[in-house]
């Protein structure tokens, strides 16, 4: 048997696949939970003012709150009543230490309680949120 010559194979040239053109990312609208939003919210909550003093310690609340707190308080007020919204406001605005100090202070008068809770509600539900100004 004679040695055969190597076979010549023709290689087909294939045209490269066309990749689809890169598309711009979809418009996400406002991104509400990015690092910039978190920093702005943290700054908002860090700006505080005194609410009451017990035993020489002054307890503060934020001067302004995130709009989400207002929406949540409004929802709670309409679904479960003002007392439930007040509990939410106290939980969000007061530190655990402030809440404990209020509970343990035997000299808090009914008028002081009323003023404190009014301040809490006014902070999370500013005038005009539940009803328009008269």
Number of helices: 5
Unreliable residue runs: none
Residue-averaged pLDDT: 85
Helical proportion?
A: 40-55%
Please indicate the percent range of residues in DSSP E strands (runs of 2 or more). Answer: 5-15%
Class derived from helix and strand content: mainly alpha
How many runs of DSSP E, i.e. beta strands? 2
Order of helices and strands: HEEHHHH
What is the rounded distance between the termini?
112 Å
- What overall geometry do the principal axes of the alpha carbons give? elongated
Largest beta sheet: what is the strand line-up?
1-2
What is Rg? Answer: 32 Å
Characterize the biggest β-sheet: 2 strands, antiparallel
Main attributes?
mainly alpha; 5 helices; 2 strands; 10% strand
What does this structure look like?
The protein has 134 residues and is mainly alpha-helical. It has helices at 35-46, 67-80, 82-93, 96-104, 110-124; strands at 48-54, 57-62. Strands 1-2 form a two-stranded antiparallel sheet. A hairpin with a 2-residue loop joins strand 1 (48-54) and strand 2 (57-62). Helix 2 packs antiparallel against helix 3 (82-93) and helix 3 packs across helix 5 (110-124). The chain is elongated.
